[in-house]
Amino acid sequence: MMKISGFQQLFSASSHSTRSFTLTAGDHVLGRVLKLFPKQTALLKLNGMTMVGKLEAPLIVRQNYWFQVTSTEGELPHLKMISPIKQGSELVESLVQELRIEVNKESKKWLSNLVEQGHALTKEKVNSLGNILAKESLTEQTKEILTYMLKLRLPLSKEVFDALKNVMGSSSFSKELQAIKEYNPNSGLGKVIDSIFFQSSGAQNEPFKKTFVNWLQATNHNEKAYQMLQHLNLFPKSKREEDVLSVASRLFTLQQSEVKAVFLAKVQESFREGFDMVRQLSQEVYEQAGEYEAFSNAWKAIDQYSNSEVIKQLMGVQRLTAFFHAFGLSQEGGGALLNLLASEVKSVDDAGIREKMELLISRITGFQLLSQANGPLSNFYMEVPLLVGKQWRDVSIQWSGQRQENQGVNPNYCHILFYVNLEALQDVVISVNIQNRIITLQIINQYADLLKESGEKFTKSLVKKLEELDYQLSGVSYRALKQESSIEKKMSTSSYSYRGGVDFLI
């Protein structure tokens, strides 16, 4: 799992955003007077940023002071000098005593470092931080989360802290979803979770799966559904539905009456395995019809469509939009998963499942907190399940770019980061930078040289597929992910050395 700040550092390394610093009344800030102007105004350096402010008393140039912001109304912030510069520990100590909160020595030292680093603290902020620290150990993760909350100006509450902590936690998002789904698969919640896994596993063949499942779910003869399969060239137009069921019965040693039920169960259990069965059946039916070339042409077209869809999903055109809606990150609202979790959690008798649901609610709330609009730009963060072979993996995604009305981020001008931990490759980061439909792709991994060696074979194919979608590939680069990187690895219980394995092709 990536640390949130690590993800942000990777993100900001390739973007050119300007720094911003917002003052609010009551903030305590460390500042330096650079130049004095008439009417008690001055050029100041606050929190590393240079700005003009209104002073309440004459001060000395090139002297450092602790200031309190008394007002932000009008053109200039009004600043009251608390005292000439002294150690941050003295300021924190005075605030802690005034607020009468219980904070240990280690926490006081960390709060002092915050103010000396330029973080604006009010009495209310110190009080809120103190309340959280009274219940949490001051680990590196705790420091990181609290610092991030200050940076994003999020509410300094225990609920917000827990939400971000759950996002950074080591538990598997995919496994939590699966456990909740298995508890009551036929409920509304179970169906929403099932749709999330469906988007992750078989989305590249979504039209085929939907049509095929519609046919399988019809217990009686369904001419319309079968004709749709023929329209998609899954079966030849010369063969009737009864012919297909008869072939399936012989091919897979089944009673003809149970063919649909068996296929439906297999497709729902594992779409990839189920779709392989569909391909076998399709081939057998085409061969019995003597249409060998037709089968080859039909499945060549299906495979080409599937490959194009994978690229589309990588660009976030379809899958990410569906996930945005499920997690309540889209501008249209949504949040079906979160709403159903909140409404059903109280009625669950199983304590273990109820705990997983509560953690999931907190985690998705964390996604929403990390997904913010900033002027004309939108930023989204989420985790989604990804099927790698027969195993589900968690993929962390951060997507930022120009905001479009009712459509989230503009896919022609955006930056997408994907992070996944794989068995052989371990931590993999894929950076997709899109400017005016021109794509720059960067793959970051500790085995970058080996990936480059094998990946270059597929560059021409990638260029061709992107051109079909009216995108242009500017270049693909590979970067080593070093030990001292800002990415937090999910700790493995066993050591691992590279033995030449490959998890999947990107």
Give a short synopsis of this structure:
It comes from Priestia flexa. The protein has 506 residues and is α+β, with helices and mostly antiparallel strands.
What would you say this structure looks like, in words?
The chain has 506 residues and is α+β, with helices and mostly antiparallel strands. The protein has helices at 4-13, 88-99, 105-116, 123-133, 140-151, 158-167, 173-183, 188-201, 206-217, 223-231, 241-251, 259-269, 271-288, 292-314, 319-327, 336-344, 351-370, 448-455, 459-468; strands at 28-37, 41-46, 49-55, 64-71, 78-84, 373-374, 377-388, 391-404, 408-422, 426-435, 438-445, 472-480. Among the domains are: 23-83, OB fold (Dihydrolipoamide Acetyltransferase, E2P), CATH 2.40.50; 88-167, no CATH class; 171-358, no CATH class. It has a 7-stranded mixed beta sheet. The chain has a 5-stranded mixed barrel with strand order 1-2-3-5-4. The radius of gyration is 28 Å and the shape is elongated. This is Flagellar hook-length control protein FliK. It comes from Priestia flexa.
